[in-house]
Amino acid sequence: MAGSLADDDGPAVLAVDTRDAAWFDAFFADHATAVHRYFVRRAARDDAEDLAAEVFATAWRRRDRIPAGFELPWLYRTASYVLANHRRRPTLTLISEYGNEQERHTTRTANPAELVMADQEVRAAMARLSSRDRSVLMLHAWEGMDGEGLAKALGLTRGGAAAALSRARARLRQAWSEDH
């Protein structure tokens, strides 16, 4: 988006928005794998590409609002909204047309974030946490977010994000110790 900037001391100067198609191509190349992995860990593998594409379509439309230096946290936050909307959609049940068999197949499977954790004790402890605590811990452990990045992804201040992470860790330790 180009516009003119005028100041009181001189003629208008043409300002060029650097967030053009070339910027977006580089942005996509830098972050596509991370966003795709985010969805692979949290949704059915078949849905991951479509969900990631939806995040990047939103990023293109809102590219002027993506905070410089915090692009990936912004993408993770957007991904969390896309995933929440995806999970709210009704699940379709497909019925086989093979005679009286009436085989039923659902289009969604269990949450891969829960399936990835092979250790039953860890799954049990994580299950006792709120979805918010699980989200904070997964953003930190799986996506490597901390500090200002975690704050941006959660939509909190840096202090708020640190407190949320600290509380989530304490609750996980408590859940773990109750089982042992």
From TrEMBL:
The chain positions of domain RNA polymerase sigma factor 70 region 4 type read: 120-172
Pfam families in UniProt: Sigma70_r2, Sigma70_r4_2
What residue stretches are annotated with the RNA polymerase sigma-70 region domain? 28-89
Q: Which UniProt keywords apply?
A: DNA-binding, Sigma factor, Transcription, Transcription regulation
Answer yes or no on keyword Transcription regulation.
Answer: yes
InterPro entries attached here? RNA_pol_sigma-70-like (IPR039425), RNA_pol_sigma-70_dom (IPR014284), RNA_pol_sigma70_r2 (IPR007627), RNA_pol_sigma70_r4_t2 (IPR013249), RNA_pol_sigma_r2 (IPR013325), RNA_pol_sigma_r3/r4-like (IPR013324), WH-like_DNA-bd_sf (IPR036388)
Record's keyword annotation contains Methyltransferase: no
PANTHER family per record: RNA POLYMERASE ECF-TYPE SIGMA FACTO, RNA POLYMERASE SIGMA FACTOR HI_1459-RELATED
The text of the family note is: Belongs to the sigma-70 factor family. ECF subfamily.
Protein name, entry field: RNA polymerase sigma factor
Protein's organism: Ornithinimicrobium kibberense
